[in-house]
Write a structure and sequence with these properties.
The chain is of the alpha/beta class. The chain has a domain at 2-192 and 364-393: Rossmann fold. It contains eleven helices and 18 strands. The protein has helices at 11-18, 30-38, 79-95, 101-105, 118-126, 140-152, 212-216, 334-340, 353-362, 366-377, 381-393, and strands at residues 2-5, 24-27, 42-45, 62-65, 130-135, 156-163, 171-172, 174-181, 193-194, 207-208, 222-225, 237-239, 255-258, 290-292, 301-303, 308-309, 321-323, 329-331. Helix 1 (11-18) crosses helix 10 (366-377) and helix 3 (79-95) runs parallel beside helix 6. The longest helix has 17 residues, at 79-95. The protein starts with a strand and ends with a helix.
Length: 394
């Protein structure tokens, strides 16, 4: 059994699925639990800090944990930094079988801070074969503390910061990672992509970072007609490499056209469905359109020819939008945000629009998850990811 603490909408689980594995997730948020259920992932809706480890004793092979990071993140109030001495003391106590969480919690500036110590309770009680943990980079010192105790219990460990873009995610999302195993030596997963790939001594080269345009399948020369292919004229038409018209229930009538579809009488014929990517998403493929991470002056702004910056949602400033030089602005869609986090575009996020965006922003990118779990287990995650990409192309 693999247990996923603070499982969210199941970014880790989607990565495990690529490797042919499955887990049981513990999560308290109702919308995230509904998402997990819709995606076919086993879920227990509960408060991780209150749930007993006894039902899992002797049954757990792997433990995954991504504690809530709001209190530690640079994007939040960072109350966790003030609480860090309390958290590190709690980790120490739990690693020695002393559970003082109730007393410490009353002293915390942010009650979420102590959740970063919660995985140690599970590690002490269950001693799984392998461990994978993820958080914002500020938590790296805490992960190093975890690694010291795990090493004392006979685990091989690796702790560091990984960039999701180096593993095929179209987003430069950096995360503090802990990988541990008591059955094999571990190290960081070998990157598959690079910002500026170079030939190595064997004449091989990594792939370039995946751009937003590449991930979303945008290309030049495609147009969409909103009325469909009918004998009479009508409907609106817009370029597929520009923001689409508003999606309504009539979007099912939209058809894709290319420049070679013009008939002699001025009408168009239906495009070959294999002639190019379908206009599933909204935004410009070239450098004219950019993705702005939020409404603040110092917001990360990236052209679509590059990976996205780290995506955040759930705050009034985090209005992630596509913009162009003509001052047009189009709010990113749930499907677009999902793809930029390396979920499939039809992943069944549940809840309000705000809840869906929040789940995406908090999730571990599945491609990064597959790479990290592959490093912990020895499974060939690169072959699994390549097979999935080939399946989608087919």
């Amino acid at each position: 059994m693999i247990v996923d603490l603070f499982a969210g909408p199941r970014g880790w689980s989607e990565g495990l699925r690529l490797l042919g594995l499955a887990d049981v997730g513990l999560e308290w948020d109702t919308a995230a639990c509904r998402t997990a259920h819709a995606a076919g992932h086993a879920t227990i809706q509960t408060d991780v800090a209150a749930y007993p480890t006894t039902p899992f004793a002797g049954r757990v092979t792997g433990l995954i944990a991504s504690p809530p990071c709001q209190a530690w993140s640079r994007a939040g109030k960072r109350g966790g930094l003030e609480d860090q001495p309390l958290v590190t003391q709690t980790v120490h106590d739990l690693a020695h079988g002393r559970d003082n969480r109730s007393a410490v919690l009353a002293q915390c500036k942010d009650e979420r801070s102590l959740l970063a110590a919660e995985p140690m309770r599970w590690l002490y009680d269950l001693r799984p074969e392998w461990v994978c943990m993820e958080e914002v980079p500020d938590v790296l010192p805490l992960w190093k503390q975890y690694a010291l105790y795990l090493q004392g219990w006979g685990y091989s460990t690796w702790v560091g910061v990984l960039n999701a873009a180096d593993y095929g995610v179209p987003q430069t999302r950096k995360r503090a990672i802990l990988i541990a195993s008591r059955t094999r030596p571990v190290t960081a997963p070998t990157p598959t992509h690079a910002k500026a790939p170079e030939l190595d001594l064997f004449g091989e080269c990594l792939k370039p970072w995946v751009s937003m345009a590449e991930a979303l399948g945008w290309s030049e020369g495609l147009t969409v007609n909103t009325r469909g292919d009918r004998r009479t004229a009508g409907g609106n038409e817009f370029p597929a490499d520009r923001p689409s018209w508003a999606l309504t229930e009539k979007a099912r009538s939209w058809v894709l056209h290319t420049n070679r579809d013009q008939r002699a009488d001025g009408s168009r014929q239906t495009a070959d469905p294999y002639a190019g990517p379908a206009p599933s998403f909204t935004a410009k493929a070239g450098g004219q359109w950019v993705l702005r991470r939020n409404s603040q002056k110092n917001a990360t702004v990236r052209p679509t020819t590059e990976p996205a910056g780290t995506l955040f949602f759930g705050h009034h400033c985090n209005n992630v939008s596509w913009e162009n030089e003509d001052a047009e602005s189009v709010r990113i869609t749930v499907a677009e945000a999902a793809v930029l986090q390396s979920f499939r575009p039809d992943y069944p996020f549940q809840g309000t629009k705000t809840a869906q965006f929040t789940q995406i922003g908090n999730a571990v990118p599945p491609l990064l998850a597959a790479a990290v779990v592959g490093a912990a287990t020895g499974l060939d995650w690169r072959a699994a990811v390549q097979g999935e990409e080939e399946r989608h192309v087919a």
